[in-house]
């Protein structure tokens, strides 16, 4: 079973693509953003801690995020394969994930990166703000999240590119066409 990561800037549609890819490959999509939002909604201690960071567009501290992910990865559905959405987002988190997977004897197969222009990203996020009313989708917070992506998360892409497991897919345009090319790219890499 496949062990995948999907990456992409806020607004790139990675959450939506993650759902479709996970279904295709028969693995759970594990989104740290969704896990945090569930904690916020349920008003858990973790949710209270994470919510403030999220509303400001800041990252939740690495150790908090990593502990939450570790727990989710222990669920039975993630034992053999998974698609991570939103983790790792920092170079520190790469190391934490490496350690987690080394302990399980499970190397990563593919890191898929969705690419899109800043203007498209901003437009999509402002649209999502109206549709979903996410508290971190105001313009100032969006700009902060885009900047953090560039400063903290693009180095993660570089690191995986050096390992030779990064695949880039054009994330602009039709949702179904993007899913199809992402599936084709991942299947090609898994076969080859
Ligand atoms: P998007 O990709 O649209 O920015 P996500 O749903 O992936 O949104 O994440 C929402 C928020 O959750 C982030 O802005 C951040 O505050 C927090 N978050 C999610 N994943 C991580 C992570 N790996 N490390 C730190 N914070 C995270």
UniProtKB/TrEMBL annotation:
For binding AMP, which residues are annotated in this chain's numbering? 32, 37, 58-60, 86-89, 93, 134, 145
Residues of the region (NMP) are 31-60
- One protein family per Pfam: ADK
Reading the lineage from the top rank, the first entry is Bacteria
The family database entries (Gene3D superfamilies) matched by this protein are listed as: P-loop containing nucleotide triphosphate hydrolases (3.40.50.300)
**Pathway annotation from the record:** Purine metabolism; AMP biosynthesis via salvage pathway; AMP from ADP: step 1/1
Reaction catalysed by this enzyme = AMP + ATP = 2 ADP
Q: Does the keyword Cytoplasm apply?
A: yes
Name the principal localization, coarsely classed: cytoplasm
Q: What class of enzyme is it?
A: transferase
Q: Identify the EC number(s).
A: 2.7.4.3
State if Nucleotide-binding is listed as a keyword: yes
Residue positions annotated to bind ATP are 11-16, 128, 173
Q: Where in the cell is it found?
A: Cytoplasm
Q: Name one GO molecular function term.
A: AMP kinase activity
Q: Which UniProt keywords apply?
A: ATP-binding, Cytoplasm, Kinase, Nucleotide biosynthesis, Nucleotide-binding, Transferase
Family in the record: Belongs to the adenylate kinase family.
Notes concerning its domains: Consists of three domains, a large central CORE domain and two small peripheral domains, NMPbind and LID, which undergo movements during catalysis. The LID domain closes over the site of phosphoryl transfer upon ATP binding. Assembling and dissambling the active center during each catalytic cycle provides an effective means to prevent ATP hydrolysis.
Q: Its quaternary structure?
A: Monomer.
Record's function text: Catalyzes the reversible transfer of the terminal phosphate group between ATP and AMP. Plays an important role in cellular energy homeostasis and in adenine nucleotide metabolism.
What HAMAP family does its record include? Adenylate_kinase_Adk
Any idea what this protein is called?
A: Adenylate kinase
Q: Give the organism the record lists.
A: Arthrobacter bambusae
